Amino acid sequence: MPHHQRIVLGIHHGATSDDLMQHAAEMARLLGVEMFGVFIEDEAVHALASMPFARELRMPSHEWHRIDPDRVAAEFRHAATTSKRLLDTVAQALGVRSSFEVRRGDPSGVVAELLCSSDIVVLAEPKRGSDGLTQSFLRAWRTACGSDASVLLLPPGRMRRRGPVVALLAGERGLSTAAHIAGIAGETLVLLGPASQLETASASVALPADRVRGRALAEVTENALRFALGDGGERLLVLDRDGLDAEQEAAVLRVAAGRGTPVLLVGPGMGG
């Protein structure tokens, strides 16, 4: 089975936190892959700034001023420089290979052009409540799911750095990937699926028997998932991106978000 080669982090001005970059770098270190950061200058912002009637409300004066295209360009350059410096610092501290590019265009379109089947694209789920699911996140989610890449969905807030790796038995790619990650990380692999499949799945992974646990999951619903996961303090939940229907996948993502668990949805490019 092929392995992932690159963690891809799309960086938008003001939309990428230090924590997100840190967690992306930790996953890159865990998998032994490169972290690739791409800073995207939103073409729509440049276009707006060039329009003579465009205005912005400046603080703290609360006065409207014409948008200066040169200032907008300078702010993008400064943000890109700051992002590169942060990525370099985080990557160096964790011993991760890294690269960085600046591109201009539609953020979703730029990411779509860059992704390949061996990539993992990182998305940060917006906070629940007043923030809701932002349009930018939904566009990024649709772009990721329209590619052959895998998707790493990070919940808001702090995440566990130790704990079992959980594989949802909904396809072979997720099981193989979860076993690979558990082996590298020195963690226990927990299998969730129908009782009839657990023994065969446990025997198929290249891990010592005492590091593999099986928990019966008859149906993929929120209540059933919470019961099966218990208080295991899982570090990561892994499944095939196309292994569940939309309702089941939504249930998995809601449970993971509530538990503060990252989810790795393994793309079709990891097959074979």
SSE layout:
Layout: E1 6-12, H1 18-31, E2 34-42, H2 43-49, E3 55-58, E4 63-66, H3 69-94, E5 98-105, H4 107-114, E6 119-124, H5 135-145, E7 150-154, E8 165-168, H6 172-185, E9 189-193, H7 195-204, E10 212-216, H8 222-229, E11 236-240, H9 246-259, E12 263-266
Parallel strand pairs: 1-2, 1-6, 2-5, 6-7, 8-9, 8-11, 9-10, 11-12
Antiparallel strand pairs: 3-4, 7-12
- Termini, distance in Å? 6 Å
Judging from the principal axes of the Cα atoms, what is the shape?
Answer: elongated
The biggest sheet amounts to:
10 strands, mixed
Instruction: Flag low-confidence runs.
Output: none
Helix content: 40-55%
Strand content: 15-25%
N to C succession of SSEs = EHEHEEHEHEHEEHEHEHEHE
The class by helix and strand makeup works out as: alpha/beta
The tally of beta strands, per DSSP, is 12
Write down the overall mean pLDDT.
83
What does the radius of gyration come to? 20 Å
**Could you give the order of strands across the largest sheet?**
5-2-1-6-7-12-11-8-9-10
Q: DSSP helix count?
A: 9
Key features of this structure:
272 residues; ten-stranded mixed sheet; two-stranded antiparallel sheet; 9 helices; 12 strands; elongated
How does this structure look, described?
It is a single chain. The chain has 272 residues and is α/β, with parallel strands linked by helices. It has nine helices and twelve strands. The strands form two sheets. The chain has a ten-stranded mixed sheet with strand order 5-2-1-6-7-12-11-8-9-10, sandwiched between helices. A two-stranded antiparallel sheet has the order 3-4. α1 (18-31) packs across α3. The longest helix has 26 residues, at 69-94. It starts with 5 loop residues before the first strand and ends in a 6-residue tail after the last strand. The model has no long low-confidence stretch (mean pLDDT 83).
